[in-house]
Amino acid sequence: MSPSQPRDRGIPEATVARLPLYLRALHGMAERGIATVSSEDLAAAAGVNSAKLRKDLSHLGSYGTRGVGYDVEYLVYQISRELGLTQDWAVAIVGVGNLGRALANYGGFVSRGFRVAALVDADPEVVGDTIAGLNVEHIDELEAVIKRRGVSIVVLATPAAAAQEVCDRVVAVGVTSILNFAPVVLSVPDTVDVRKVDLSIELQILAFHEQRKAGGPLMAVDSQ
Amino acid sequence: MSPSQPRDRGIPEATVARLPLYLRALHGMAERGIATVSSEDLAAAAGVNSAKLRKDLSHLGSYGTRGVGYDVEYLVYQISRELGLTQDWAVAIVGVGNLGRALANYGGFVSRGFRVAALVDADPEVVGDTIAGLNVEHIDELEAVIKRRGVSIVVLATPAAAAQEVCDRVVAVGVTSILNFAPVVLSVPDTVDVRKVDLSIELQILAFHEQRKAGGPLMAVDSQ
DNA sequence: CCGACTTTGTGCATCGGTTCACAAAGGGCT
DNA sequence: AGCCCTTTGTGAACCGATGCACAAAGTCGG
Ligand SMILES: NC(=O)c1ccc[n+]([C@@H]2O[C@H](COP(=O)([O-])OP(=O)(O)OC[C@H]3O[C@@H](n4cnc5c(N)ncnc54)[C@H](O)[C@@H]3O)[C@@H](O)[C@H]2O)c1
Ligand SMILES: NC(=O)c1ccc[n+]([C@@H]2O[C@H](COP(=O)([O-])OP(=O)(O)OC[C@H]3O[C@@H](n4cnc5c(N)ncnc54)[C@H](O)[C@@H]3O)[C@@H](O)[C@H]2O)c1
User: Fold this and answer.
1) What is the CATH classification number for the domain harbouring B124?
2) CB atoms B197 and A197 under 8 Å
C-alpha cells in the first residue's frame, strides 16, 4: 500500500549476478576519484546496456538523481550491503592441490568481504604444510574446523571422486553455500546453494561457437 | 521441403551450455557399460529436468527410440560432433602464474578434444621454464606462437591490468575464442567470443543468498 | 524563479527459455 | 499379428529477462 517501498526483497537472479560487476566498475571509479556516474557510463564500464543497469539498480531502491546520475560512494555502499559484503565471510578451501593452492594464494579472493579461514586436505604429504600463511588441516578435522572457524562458504577443489562425500559432510554441519570446481553434479538439499565453475564446460561452449564460425556459410573474418 | 531435417542449425544458447553436462554424464555411463539410457535417467545424472533434456536433444535431431531411450555411444558421438569435439583444439595459456600453472597441470583439461599447445608469460623468471612438459615462451613471441601452433582458443590468466592488451593482440592475429580469468570486462569486436570465469563474482552471489537465508523469514531456494 | 536540459525510473512489448502434458512412435509379449 | 506398455518429441502455456521509449524528476544557468 505505501507507495514508497524502497527495497523489494525480491531481486531477480539475473540482477544479483550482475551486481558484482557494477561493484567492480564502481570501485575502479572511486579509486580514480570519480564522484558521480551516469547509468550510461557505468553500464559501459560494466559491459551491459544502460536500460538494464537502471532496471537492475531500481530493484535496490531509488539511489540515483535525475539529471545527474549516481553517487559512486553511496552506490558502492548500497550494492555492498545488498550483496552482504559489509560483513566478512569465512571461506574454507577443501582440496589443496594445483587449483586449491592457486586459490589460497590468490589475493583478490580476500579483497572484499571474503577471508580464507581454513585449508583442508586428505593427503598426509600436504597436511601440516603452510600455504599462504595457513596451516593445512586434515580432512578428519573437517567438521571441527568448519565450526571452530565459523566457515559459512566452502570451496570444493578435490578430485571429482571425493567431491560428493565432502559435500555431504559440510552440508551435515550446516554449510549452505558451496562453490564447486570438481566436474560433478552435486546432490544437495534445496536449502543449499551450489555454484559450479567448470573450465571444461566453458571450453566446450567456445569450441561449439568456434566450429560454427569456421564451418558456417558466412566466413566472418573481420579485421576489427 | 524435405520433411526430415535433422539438424536445425539454430541451437539455443541455453542448450549449448548444457550439452557438455550431458556429455559428461554419458561418458560416465559408457564407462560403466550402460548401452541405453532414458531421458529420465540421463536428466537425473546431469541434474536437470527430463523435459528440458528431451527438448535440448531434440534440437540436434531425433536420436532417441520411443519406448526405449537413447543409445549411449551414439548420443556421445552426436553431442561431441555438435560441440566440435571430434577435432582437437589447440589452446594457449597466457599468464603462467598461480592459476595458469594449475590450469597447465590440469589433466582433465586435455581429456576431450583440447590440447594445451603453448604457455606464454612476460616474466623473465618464468620464461624458459618447463611446466607440464611445455616450454614457457616470451610474450614478445605471442603472435608467432599462436600462428605456429595453430592456436584457436586462448586462456587469459594474466593480472587484470595486462588482460586487455593481451586480448587485443590475440584478436589481431585472428583468435576468436577467449576464456578470461582476469577480473575485467574485455572489449572485443563482436565476431569474438569471450567467456569469463570469475571466482569473486561467484562468491558474491553465494554471499547474497547466504545473507538472505540468515536474515529473511523465507528460506531462499537454490539453482545449480 | 523559470525554462531548458539531462538523466533516471518504469510501463510495456518482446523474446528466449522452461515446464507441462499428451499424441505419436516403437518394442516386446502373448 | 495385435495389443499394451514405455518413452520420446513437441505444441502450447507460462515465466523471467531484456530493451525500447518516454514521462517524471531533478539540476543548472540565466
Ligand atoms: N587444476 C585445474 O586447472 C582445474 C580446472 C578445472 C577443474 N579442476 C577440478 O578441480 C579439482 C582439483 O583439481 P586439482 O588440479 O587441484 O587436483 P589435484 O589432484 O592437484 O588436487 C586435489 C587435492 O585434493 C586432495 N584430496 C583428495 N581427496 C580428498 C578428500 N577426500 N578430502 C580432501 N582433500 C582431498 C588431494 O590430496 C589433492 O591435494 C578437480 O576436481 C579438478 O577436476 C581443476
Ligand atoms: N589464482 C586464482 O585463484 C585466481 C582466481 C580468480 C581469478 N584470478 C585471476 O587470474 C589472473 C591470474 O591470477 P594468478 O593468481 O595466476 O596471478 P599471478 O600473478 O600468480 O600470475 C600472473 C602471471 O601473468 C604474468 N604476466 C603479467 N603480465 C603479463 C603479460 N602482459 N603477458 C603475459 N603474462 C603476463 C606474470 O608474469 C605472472 O606469471 C588474475 O587476473 C587474477 O585476478 C586468479
Assistant:
1) 3.40.50.720
2) yes
B91 in contact with chain A, both atoms CB, cutoff 8 A: yes
What's the total number of domains in chain B?
2
The predicted-structure confidence for B72-121, as pLDDT tens digits, reads as follows 999 999 999 999 999 999 999 999 999 999 999 998 876 679 999 999 99
Q: What is the DSSP letter of A134?
A: E
Asked if residue B109 belongs to a domain, the reply is yes
Pair (B42, B103) in one structural domain: no
Written as one letter, the residue type at A35 is A
Of B203, B195, B153, B162, the residue nearest A177 (C-alpha): B203
Separation of B193 CA and C6 C1' (Å)? 35
Q: What is the pLDDT of residues B163-206, one digit of tens each?
A: 999 999 999 999 999 999 999 999 999 999 999 999 999 999 99
Could you say which of B24, B46, B191 has the minimum Cβ distance to residue A222?
B191
Q: Is residue B66 part of a domain?
A: yes
How buried is residue B143: exposed, middle or buried, by Cβ count under 10 Å (0-12/13-18/19+)?
A: middle
Is pTM, for the whole model, over 0.85? yes
- Residue B169 is part of which domain span? 89-201
> Which residues of chain B does A174 touch, with a Cβ-Cβ cutoff of 8 Å?
none
A 38-57: CB under 8 A from B: 45-47
Residues B77 and B102 in one domain: no
